[in-house]
Amino acid sequence: MHLRACLQLCSTFVVTVFAATGRGFIVFGHLTHLIQKLTTSFKSLFQRGLASRMASGFVLVALLTLGSKALSFVKDAVVARQFGTSDSLDAFMFSFGFLAFLAALVGGGIPESFLPMYAEMRYQQSEGRAYRLAVQSCMVHALVLIFIGSVLYFASPFYVGWIATGFTAGKKQLAVEMMRQLMPLMMCYGMSFQLSAWLRADKFFTIATAAPVLVPLVILIFFFKDGAESNLQTLLYGSLLGTLLHMLTLTLVLWRAFKPSLSFLWHCLFRWEPEMQHVMKNAVPFVFAGAIFTSVVVVDQTMAAWLEPGSVAVLGYTDKVCGIILALTASPACDVLFPYFADKVARRDWHGIRRQLFSSAGIILSFALPAALLLCWLAPVVIQLLFERGTFSASDTERVAHVLRFAALQIPFYILGGLASRVVVALQATRFILVLSAIGLIANASLNWILMQNMGAAGIALSSVLVQMLSAGMACLYVLRQIQGKIQADLS
Residue 195: which of 239, 253, 145 has the closest Cα? Predict the structure, then answer.
């Protein structure tokens, strides 16, 4: 009996080993196939080089963004040296962050719904009607920004008093003053979203990416001009003039590229493009989704204001550092790929969308993931080199580096979610975007509250990591299911 039991046990063990080995070979085979596909994508990309408009566009946008970010970090270093994590900078960043959120909110509405419709009209109808749609979208966008700015000018004391509960009375008053004086910045910055979307829709990536460098450049010029007498007004006026020049540059390039006649503009004023109704219809869900999802930044800043003084500035510094990697990966990829995704949707090239999404994500993540891990490891050194000078002390470096170690972990998930969301927008899947944004907001606020109790600002950063992970997973799953469904529908 014992011998039989031993033989049965041995036979079971052998079968299990063979089964496990078989599964291992299967998994290994899948991994090998994936690596081969990724290697093929790399070879294809580098073989085409500048002959591929998409590849050259990505490289160009990445290089221009790197230059812009480098100049922005010089500006941030100057600001950190002058203000550190003072109350005045806290108030400025609170006001600036909220106005930038509003501009991005409106910029995530009309421009997001405009670009896919613009691509469809150029492909299926005529360029004249597409240009008329673009002009009318700019007009509507400007009117919306003016309306929001007018309301906010009078409502700013109520908003600051209600939200910034951790600010002192003097700090609240300064935040209100900053918000009112920065109102033109919101309008110029908001219009840049619409103008950049138009340029990118026609594959003019260079100026759309290079123009933002004017903002930190002008700020640095103002600080250089004022020298030791630089103060908060120096930062304020530099920001205002920089965003104005940014918007005017985009406008001038569009004017010279398309050379619209006065009769055409007059025609745009009085003959409404029928497809504009479709743009506005889709813009409303995008605005609501943007209000929900991008309010994560405002929620983070608001809840950071409940913590110890300087927490808002600490989160701001960590966002800027993480922005280096995102500026070289997610931002160029999304900016360049979005119009191509929109073109493929208009042509119903579902296999091409899926292939492009996989290859782009694999290539970009192969650079971004090691960079994120390296950033976690070298966080104190990075912060010290970038910011530790003037009133930004060694204790500030330690504080920001601690939060950065958590914030850097969101980078891979941010990239995946960003690429998948470009396909979602190109598909005009407004209902899913609303659901995803609502889940993200609720998860962010809940995790912030739970994690910040013991971890402080680092808990808010960790909350962002978990929310990005959830959002990226849901977006990727949705896109793959939609593409598979459309492929099967075309076959049937």
Answer: 253
89 vs 79: CA distance, rounded Å = 9
* pTM attached to this predicted model: 0.62
Q: Residue 397 corresponds to which amino acid? A: T
Hey, what's the torsion of the CAs at 163, 167, 169, 171, to 10 degrees? -110
Phi-psi region of 431 (alpha: psi -120 to 50; beta: other; left: phi over 0): alpha
The angle at the Cα of 71, spanning 70 to 77, to the nearest 5 degrees, equals 90
Are 449 and 303 in contact by the 8 Å Cβ rule? The answer is: yes
**What's the confidence (pLDDT) of residue 294?**
62
Q: In the chain, what are the domain boundaries?
A: 52-491
d(CA 479, CA 429): 10
- What would the two tokens of residue 212 be? 């933002």
Range 391-415 burial, b when 16+ CB lie within 10 A, else e: ebeeebbebbbbbbbbbbbbbbbbb
- Nearest partner of 188 among 147, 140, 243, judged by Cα: 243
The tokens of 182 are what? 């920065």
Whether 196 contacts 65, CB under 8 Å: no
Give pLDDT, residue 104: 77
The pLDDT averaged over each successive group of 10 residues in the chain (492 residues) is: 42 40 42 46 44 59 72 79 74 83 75 76 76 84 88 85 76 84 88 85 77 87 82 86 91 84 79 78 72 72 80 82 76 73 79 82 80 86 81 83 88 84 77 82 88 87 89 88 84 72
Instruction: Report how far apart the first and last C-alpha atoms of the chain are (Å, whole number).
Output: 61
- DSSP structure string for 319-357: HHHHHHHHHHTHHHHHHHHHHHHHHHHHHT-HHHHHHHH
Per-residue model confidence (pLDDT) at position 50:
38
| Residue whose C-alpha is closest to residue 132's, from 14, 230, 273, 2 | 273
DSSP summary character for residue 392 = -
DSSP class of 168: -
Sequence-distant (6+) residues with CB within 8 A of 55 are 45, 48, 49
Report the pLDDT value the prediction gives residue 26, as an integer from 0 to 100.
43
